[in-house]
Amino acid sequence: MSVTILAMTKENNYGYQVFDWNKTIQDTILSSFFWGYIVLQIPAGVFAGRFGGKMLILVSMIVTGLINLIVPISAVKGDWMAVCGCRIGMGLFQGILYPSLHGLLGQWAPITERSRMGTFVYSGSQLGTVIEMMLAGVLSDSKFGWPSVYYVAGITCILWSVLWIIFGASNPAESKWISKEERKYIESNAGSSNANENKKIPVPWKSILTSLPFWSILLSHCGQSLGFWTLLTEMPSYMDKVLGVNIKSTGYLSALPYVAMYILSFVFSWIAEYLVNNNVTSLSSTRKIFNTIAFWGPAASLLALCYIPAGHLTLAVVMLTITVGLNGAHYVGFLISHIDLSPNFASTLMGITNGCGNIFSIMAPLSVSVVVSDEKSAADWRKVFFISIAFYFLSNLFFILFMSGNVQDWNEPQSKNTIEEGEKKSKKEKTGEHKF
Question: Residue 95 belongs to a domain with what CATH number?
């Protein structure tokens, strides 16, 4: 949402104060969200795995809504540093969202419906981006001015939270809105333990951190974060400064790539489920196929985009739309694979990979400040995009080589009590043998 403020350079007709911040400050504001975002990822994943994600999601959305409501006054009273503070706080509490959502999916998503349900959940972020891009300009030009963008976002989060209190549940056993038959079906097909059992299962940290399939997901998450956030935050500036194409001026044009990503994500999820449920390809092969589409497809499109001649609006928008659209396949690639490996610890795995991945999200806008000395130099911008292309290619190659679609042995590690009982039994047997 800070992009709305960043784009304003003079006072508008309604008297609202606007700001003229240079590119370095803009990049700092854009990246500040991730400074907070990475902090609570792993703790949130562990907590959601043990106690469920409903309350964490509620806290995340309410606090995000409240911070949105104070952004306008913070910008006026505290300038860009106060906006950074708001962004850090927003990132801190939104950082608990994805691990909690993954924990919910681990409890609620049957294996045969996992790709589709994961896409429904996570593609919502793209739908939100599309809506925000189309509404932000309209709201900013209205008599309510740019602060209305944040007020609408804040009120929406709070209203959603009310609905979540009523209808949300961490697992089927806690839900008041499903039948006994549906609950039984979900619990027998999701592959996860019930909530009470999860509280007793220790997190198998050593097994997780020495698992090559887990590392394939981790590296893919890092590659995705760097590549996608470079596209999201920097591509409009590149197209404006180098190609002479200002897509920011048209909300619908800016939103087109994300509309494509949103629509294609459902196409990809339907195809993925068809392949798996009809035994056309294995779950592992399906994840690898769509992760390749999501990574190597955008890498090739991004390479082509780097060499488009200046002034070609249609060609530039088409290539950007293809680049972002193909990335929608990652929802049924690495992003849902945490649950394939371990439904019980999906939230913890997501906390680790999303935390690490978003370190690379911080690098996306900041790398431009370091690498690009002349914003109008195509050669400087290509260095930035070549870095993204390399990450896309190498991280997916590792995913192809080492990803597994099988639930790992450490999903249900042997409890400490069982081990202790076995040791006691062994000692008794030895004692008995000695006496005999």
Answer: 1.20.1250.20
Provide the pLDDT confidence category of residue 428 given band limits of 50, 70 and 90: very low
Spell out a b/e string for 165-190, using b for 16 or more CB atoms within 10 Å of the CB, else e. eeebbbbbeebeeeeeeeeeebbeeb
Q: Note the residue count of the chain.
A: 436
Residue pLDDT, tens place only, 44-77: 999 888 888 899 999 999 999 999 999 999 998 8
Greater model confidence, 416 or 39:
39
The whole-angstrom distance between residue 104's C-alpha and the CA centroid of its chain comes to: 15
C-alpha span between 184 and 434 (Å, rounded): 50
Q: What is the Cα–Cα distance from 175 to 104, expressed in whole angstroms?
A: 12
Instruction: Tell whether 135 and 241 lie within a shared domain.
Output: no
Q: What is the largest CA-CA distance in the chain?
A: 98
Report CA torsion sign: 402, 405, 407, 411: positive
Return the H-helix or E-strand segment holding 260.
Answer: helix 251-277
Cα distance between residue 74 and residue 83, in whole Å = 6
Does residue 118 have a pLDDT over 80?
Answer: yes
Query: Which pTM value belongs to this model?
Result: 0.80
Angle CA 147–148–154, to nearest 5: 95
Grouping H, G, I as helix, E, B as strand and the rest as coil, residue 183 is helix
Contact in structure between 247 and 239 (CB atoms under 8 Å)? yes
Domain check: are 184 and 254 in the same one? no
Instruction: Tell me which residue range forms the domain holding 410.
Output: 202-418
Residue 434 binned pLDDT confidence (cut-offs 50, 70, 90): very low
Which 3-state string (H, E, C) describes 19-85?
CCCCHHHHHHHHHHHHHHHCCCHHHHHHHHHHHCCHHHHHHHHHHHHHHHHHHHHHHHHHHHHHHHH
Residue 218 within a domain: yes
By CB neighbour count within 10 A (0-12 exposed, 13-18 middle, 19+ buried), where does 379 fall? exposed
Judge contact between 136 and 4, C-beta under 8 A: yes
pLDDT averaged over the chain? Answer: 83
- Taking a C-beta distance cutoff of 8 angstroms, is the pair 349, 45 a contact? yes
Q: Classify residue 435: in a domain, yes or no.
A: no
